[in-house]
From TrEMBL:
Name the UniProt record assigns to this protein: ADP-dependent glucokinase/phosphofructokinase
Pfam families: ADP_PFK_GK
InterPro entries from the UniProt entry: ADP_PFK/GK (IPR007666), Ribokinase-like (IPR029056)
PROSITE patterns, sorted: ADPK
Organism: Clostridium boliviensis
Assigned keywords, A-Z: Glycolysis, Kinase, Magnesium, Metal-binding, Transferase
């Protein structure tokens, strides 16, 4: 076959909930929730607990991944809403974007069920990570919200500070992340680039160690000059994130992460339009992760830092365009939507920031502004990082 790009391993079935503030407020009253209960670090043993944590993150304007104790809790949560079924997972969404732009790819999935079969595009050649007897569906619930939405019920009263998304799932396939190192390895021998999704949902360290061992073996099948990228994530167990970086760094060419993941890594909140704070953060991360190059993408800008930054300019630009097109048009944006998005004006504050941080750091950084999307009334805020990763790959192919 002629695939130049390979991807793995996360595939999931997403239930993208249709936001309705009245439903949120109704559930606050139904579960008798109060403002002093809203916390981000509680035991997730009930649907009530999921509501508490979701509201806490919405109030703070921080995205998160929530893993309840039981998968049934996810289904119970979703039943309050209308929703559409889509495919998720960073490598999967990135492969779908490549298909949309006319490029085939290879994908090893972590699950394989009726929805994966129905929704996977024709140009994505799939190696299922599970056999035919394992076709259960563990839905990933996507609660996405625009900025400036007021939520008011009982004594809870806040306005969401920014666009945000809450991911809720307990997916046995994601928790165990099957990796077919030899079978998939034989398929990727001639690929030019490989995109790894993160291992955020694995909560058992023995499982993680085994999957990283298999990943390292799998990547050894690639040509010596292949480009290897990982799109990072907010890990349920932060120490696992450092382990993944440490183990894979010798084989990685690039780590990409968003602003939430950057701030989780440095364990503090920064002002993303303050060039001095951003400089300090990216230099800290770069020193710790030990890879040649990092990309950070935010709602205001995207930057590449490290070695040979000029080689990533096309990837950076296309990452911003793909994420912006998804923000505007959702899961089914077209090539025409991509072209129209490319011509949109940049955010003015972001243009100033990019110039300032370039002046401070110099040749080791390339930073570009994000598009001004303030006109979008019903944005899609889930999967933007996945779309950005697809744009990185698309940029490599041009």
């Amino acid at each position: 076959m002629n695939e130049r790009i390979a991807l793995g391993f996360h595939t999931c079935v997403d239930y993208e909930l249709v936001w309705d503030t009245s439903i949120i407020e109704r559930q606050i009253r139904a579960f008798n929730l109060s403002a002093d209960e809203l916390k981000m670090d509680i035991k997730l043993d009930s649907e009530r607990a999921v509501w508490i944590m979701s509201l806490a993150y919405l109030k703070a304007g921080i995205g998160c991944e929530i893993v309840p104790d039981k998968s049934e809790t996810c289904v119970e949560f979703s039943r309050h809403f209308d929703y559409k079924i889509t495919l998720g997972g960073t490598p999967t969404r990135a492969a779908i974007i490549l298909d949309r732009m006319g490029y085939p790819s290879l994908l090893q999935t972590s699950c394989y069920n009726e929805h994966v079969k129905r929704l996977m595009p024709s140009k994505v050649r799939v190696l299922p990570g599970v056999d035919a007897d394992h076709a259960e569906i563990y839905p990933h619930i996507i609660l996405q919200c625009a900025g400036g939405v007021r939520i008011q019920a009982n004594d809870i009263d806040f306005i969401t500070p920014r666009e945000n998304r809450i991911l809720i799932s307990r997916d046995e396939y994601s928790l165990n992340m099957p990796i077919l190192d030899d079978a998939f390895g034989e398929m990727i021998r001639e690929c030019e680039a490989f995109l790894l999704g993160s291992f955020t949902e694995i909560v058992d360290f023995d499982v993680l160690k085994d999957r990283i061992k298999k990943t390292k073996k799998l990547l050894s099948y690639l040509p010596k000059d292949a480009t290897i990228i990982i799109e990072d994530g907010c890990y349920i167990k932060s120490e696992f994130r450092h382990y993944v970086h440490q183990q894979l760094a010798p084989q990685l060419d690039l780590i990409s992460m968003n602003e939430d993941e950057l701030q989780q890594y440095i364990e503090k909140t920064i002002e993303i339009l303050n060039p001095h704070e951003v400089k300090e953060a990216i230099e800290y991360v770069y020193k710790k992760v030990g890879v040649k190059t990092i990309i950070i993408h935010s709602a205001a800008w995207a930057l590449v830092y490290g070695e040979q930054v000029d080689a990533w300019k096309s990837s950076l630009e296309n990452g911003v365009i793909m994420a912006s097109a998804r923000f505007r048009k959702g899961d089914y944006f077209t090539v025409d939507d991509y072209k129209q998005t490319k011509e949109l004006p940049d955010k003015k504050d972001s243009v100033i920031f990019c110039r300032q941080i370039k002046d401070i750091i110099g040749d080791k950084i390339h930073c570009i502004p994000c598009k001004d999307l303030s006109f979008v009334k019903n944005p899609t805020v889930v999967g933007l990082g996945d779309s950005f990763a697809g744009g990185i790959l698309f940029g490599l192919l041009l």
